[in-house]
Amino acid sequence: MRPSGRAPDQMRELRFEPGFTKHAEGACLVSFGETRVLVTASVEEKVPPFLRGKGQGWVTAEYGMLPRATHTRGNREAAKGKQSGRTQEIQRLIGRSLRAVVDLSKLGERQIVIDCDVIQADGGTRTASISGAWVALRIAADKLLASGALTVDPIVTQVAAVSCGIYEGTPVLDLDYIEDSSAHSDGNFVLTGDGAIVEAQLTAEGATFDEEGLLRLLRLAKIGCSDIFAAQLKAAGK
Amino acid sequence: MRPSGRAPDQMRELRFEPGFTKHAEGACLVSFGETRVLVTASVEEKVPPFLRGKGQGWVTAEYGMLPRATHTRGNREAAKGKQSGRTQEIQRLIGRSLRAVVDLSKLGERQIVIDCDVIQADGGTRTASISGAWVALRIAADKLLASGALTVDPIVTQVAAVSCGIYEGTPVLDLDYIEDSSAHSDGNFVLTGDGAIVEAQLTAEGATFDEEGLLRLLRLAKIGCSDIFAAQLKAAGK
Amino acid sequence: MRPSGRAPDQMRELRFEPGFTKHAEGACLVSFGETRVLVTASVEEKVPPFLRGKGQGWVTAEYGMLPRATHTRGNREAAKGKQSGRTQEIQRLIGRSLRAVVDLSKLGERQIVIDCDVIQADGGTRTASISGAWVALRIAADKLLASGALTVDPIVTQVAAVSCGIYEGTPVLDLDYIEDSSAHSDGNFVLTGDGAIVEAQLTAEGATFDEEGLLRLLRLAKIGCSDIFAAQLKAAGK
Amino acid sequence: MRPSGRAPDQMRELRFEPGFTKHAEGACLVSFGETRVLVTASVEEKVPPFLRGKGQGWVTAEYGMLPRATHTRGNREAAKGKQSGRTQEIQRLIGRSLRAVVDLSKLGERQIVIDCDVIQADGGTRTASISGAWVALRIAADKLLASGALTVDPIVTQVAAVSCGIYEGTPVLDLDYIEDSSAHSDGNFVLTGDGAIVEAQLTAEGATFDEEGLLRLLRLAKIGCSDIFAAQLKAAGK
Amino acid sequence: MRPSGRAPDQMRELRFEPGFTKHAEGACLVSFGETRVLVTASVEEKVPPFLRGKGQGWVTAEYGMLPRATHTRGNREAAKGKQSGRTQEIQRLIGRSLRAVVDLSKLGERQIVIDCDVIQADGGTRTASISGAWVALRIAADKLLASGALTVDPIVTQVAAVSCGIYEGTPVLDLDYIEDSSAHSDGNFVLTGDGAIVEAQLTAEGATFDEEGLLRLLRLAKIGCSDIFAAQLKAAGK
Amino acid sequence: MRPSGRAPDQMRELRFEPGFTKHAEGACLVSFGETRVLVTASVEEKVPPFLRGKGQGWVTAEYGMLPRATHTRGNREAAKGKQSGRTQEIQRLIGRSLRAVVDLSKLGERQIVIDCDVIQADGGTRTASISGAWVALRIAADKLLASGALTVDPIVTQVAAVSCGIYEGTPVLDLDYIEDSSAHSDGNFVLTGDGAIVEAQLTAEGATFDEEGLLRLLRLAKIGCSDIFAAQLKAAGK
């Protein structure tokens, strides 16, 4: 039995609150159960140096966790003077995941910066971030299309992410903090709207898994992402 | 006329949402109109090195602004690798303001860390932070009292803060972003529950003011803080 | 009785030694009693990025303390790799104070950088810095006027600063280190040549003060600044 | 056809040169074709703070690239003052991979630090690092066993890593730089001596892959790791 | 002819003003002509970690340059967040030079930190620093001897430093800024009270020199140091 | 007797392995006995800002030590976030030494960056670095000459470096780690192909030396550099 009483292939309650803050071109407060991440998409009329003059755009992401988003207070990265390896790993993953579903050549020479700030953490902050980021990005792109700044939609399809792992011997979907802390193997899958894999990251801590295990986790991920895709569309008003 | 249509001595709508996040010993989402700050109070059973073994506690504060809390995106301080002078100035002010109403000798050898993270900025983020911090601190202290960790209340009185300034020649209370951008002189007052001054900071940019102007701003601040004190008590369930 | 035997409204001995070093366009060693600060004004024929092409100038300030300017040696900020929050707060205050009396549009596209380095500290280093900075700035501007680089004087009026506080129940002027260490409430006032307020910062540590207290400190500040204004003019050869 | 003329399931020439340097308890120069990484294992009689007094050991890894290991010179991370996100991601992966095959409770309160420094890069530096690290670790553990510092072997099994990817439509093993630069999807697999998965990381850049693709890459990885396991044993003198 | 009109073996005017500041155990403002350095010696009742419990003391040095000590303003190292290679090189040299004439075993477990801050630079700041540091150290040691904290004098002999170089083909002593800028070869010699060499650093920029040239510079250095030794003794009241 | 059994004026075995790595325009693994340094010369078609548009080139150097190049592991400078003073001192010395034998005006507006990375340390890493750097530079320049990018040779003569010191009372050449650790006085000499001095750095730790001692060390250095010059030419195929 899962601590939350959920079925093995059951997601936590999903919530996408578009427009949670007002300044960003796209904004969304995403909740995977008790995990809550504020995602904003900021449109900037410039690109990073390596893309200047190439006629294409860029999508990048930054990630942060409020100091007391967690059970015990973590040190503020701004005060420590550097971002942890974990933070950098996550923000690189978010950026790659989004770029996989954006046709950068249709974006023009502009950059969309995604900020994912974890307000409250209960496992799965990176998967909630990616899933919420698509909604913020969608809203920002719609705004650019509505204003005429863009004439064709640069977003090719949806993207969502979810974690899966082996909890007490059973493959389960969307691990919360308690499950995550004791899972021997877990992974994150980033899938596109049509179920293809964009990213897969699996780690066996103190255990290992085989081909069969890998496939079972992937199948759970597909189930979870279906739910997320539906909720994303609704939140984005599609 | 103020852009918002408010009377000169009228605060923006005040909102204190205690318990906005669940992990911290005290938490509060404070809104001064469109300015929204998430404040948490974290109790740590240790004190900074300079206080070890002295039998007293400490209250300190950190402040941050989400990158897109503002009209245009600001760089993330964690990514830049340092906190700006403005950030440090504000967090020092918040810490001093709270310590002014806490009897540290009654806190035992523990530290309460206040985190103020601006979710959305529209002027007055430091005054909203101080005002919300008192609520988070009050909740955390109540929890320590309820659990028996504390037997006497270390909080001596309330503390609140509000900005005032001269907008188009008229002294006004609680400036929003538009007013703040064009005000020639403004200041922040931190007052205690009985109206005494804890901190006062006044700056005349491109103009100056005299004794009379200083007193008019102080009187507006007292009006504003009365409203805040009432709202704080209600939020803290007193 | 004050430890120094001074009357409550009596400044420490003021000394301004213009030209203490030779390379800077303006230089002054200012002493408020035993507090000594070397201030230089460096003219640079460029402006910060945010002002480029706007046809106006800029005045900014940096502040530092020699490691053994104080009773016990402090760590060198260059060795620690960052400036403290206190340092940043002070240098921002110095910069704002000077800009309040300079018409930046008359400066042309050039920047004057004020460096305030504390040689010996005995309380009031920031107020001595601001007061000395005006002299260094005045000398530098005179040099620009003499050379024809400037044709109209960009300095509108004088600016000076002084601290005041409640020492053992009595409001006193220009606190030295001993007084400063035990004062319950103190503040720094920055005033213009005609007595108007440019900046006021008051802090009540462990105590509070009221409207009446605030006004008494301000009146002391006006007395102190009168003395400083006279000494500044003499030092600048006016 | 692969640029190197290799068959799709063919590794580059593998070379492990144990004892390439003399000071470290374990050392190995590993070559995957033209990719060469110097790996050292340093035994330290202390553990990180979070493990003190817990009676167990730790294995951690650091990774670096000599500035001109690459086609064009990269900036030295020591000169830039920080390690890139990529570097941190890789060194975290190396550490996790090794810990997966070490019984830390059998290591005693000591730490083994693995340093992987890329002398020459031609694709697959992280997989060469992990594979070579096992040899350095094995040599260091043998030294501890021989000296009596350890009485039971803490290394549970072998660990090796290899990359796979889709190059011009064909799944291929152990990508070199040319292949890596143009592959649309690739991944790194870390496998144990008995073929179980310890880590899997797959990224589809500009393309995606499905379940079938994932399995084909995994099967290639198993082939590659068999070769590596054999070469590791030989190098370690088993 | 030298720009200053000095003879080739003539030092600039030497001045040592002991007690220039009051807080440090030893202090001295040293002038080599227009080069002026404030040196303080701070006694700390602790040693660096690597010497703890070894019953001996330590002498170390830090060096800094005020931003406008030079012809054009240099960036403040505290603001840049790091000390330049030049600064580190100089402070290491100062520390080694002083330790060469101190019997650390007679110092007890205490550290003397020398701070050399250049108030005005005109060539030879490192040699002035070393020469002045001996005076500050001497004063601090005398204070420790007078107070009974030390019973035997840990300072073995005097140490002084001076620069020499080939200016327009002629070997000259104690180069000022103009000479230093155009000298093809120059060096710094650190000598003890009896004329032995503690440190010698020679650099030929764009030229080279031979054995004979080396010896001629060394002989000039001996002449210069004689003058410095005499002035040091007088300043230290010996 | 020297621990290695060498004669006082005998170098360790010298080895220069050109082309040790393949990407750099010039590369060389230099060994002075057990001290091994990988040196690369990277040609970049740009110059540092202070030389832009001046029609001349630049040669600069960076130095690093692999963490376990030494007897006990040193912390990685990239992980610590800064280069030590020792590292900066050495890389500045390498750069100056090479520039002394290059006619920068013949290099065109390009920069050659020398990277010296110590693979294994046993004393004399800086002298091995300089000596090996000349070989890497020579190879890179030959490549530029062969390709027609350069038409005249910018390298004026050879440069080499070697250490000398007083070991147990006897002046010896090319100190290894054991000798270096106990030598009371030592120095590094950088000489040109015709025996002239480019740099000389001598330090007497706990002892001093006189004119005669200085000359004896210099004469040893000339002997050592003769050997190095011959080996360099052979390695560079001259």
Tell me what the structure shows.
The structure is a homohexamer of 238-residue chains. With 238 residues, chain A is α+β, with helices and mostly antiparallel strands. The first copy, chain A, has a single domain (14-236), classed as GHMP Kinase, N-terminal domain (Ribosomal Protein S5, domain 2). Helices cover 31% and strands 29% of the residues of chain A. Chain A is built from five helices and nine strands. Chain A has helices at residues 77-80, 85-99, 125-147, 177-182, 211-235; strands spanning 14-18, 26-32, 35-44, 58-65, 111-120, 159-167, 170-173, 185-192, 197-204. In chain A, the strands form two sheets. In chain A, strands 1-2-3-5-4 form a five-stranded mixed beta sheet. A four-stranded antiparallel beta sheet of chain A has the order 7-6-8-9. In chain A, strand 2 (26-32) and strand 3 form a beta hairpin. In chain A, helix 2 packs across helix 3 (125-147) and helix 3 (125-147) runs parallel beside helix 5 (211-235). The longest helix of chain A has 25 residues, at 211-235. Chain A is globular and about 50 Å long. Strand 9 of chain A pairs antiparallel with strand 9 of chain D, so a sheet runs across the interface.
Task: Please name the defining characteristics of this protein.
238 residues, alpha+beta, Ribosomal Protein S5, domain 2, 5-stranded mixed beta sheet, globular
Break the fold down into its secondary structure elements and pairings:
The structure is a homohexamer of 238-residue chains.
Chain A: E1 14-18, E2 26-32, E3 35-44, E4 58-65, H1 77-80, H2 85-99, E5 111-120, H3 125-147, E6 159-167, E7 170-173, H4 177-182, E8 185-192, E9 197-204, H5 211-235
Parallel strand pairs in A: 4-5
Antiparallel strand pairs in A: 1-2, 2-3, 3-5, 6-7, 6-8, 8-9
Helix pairs in contact in A: 2-3, 3-5
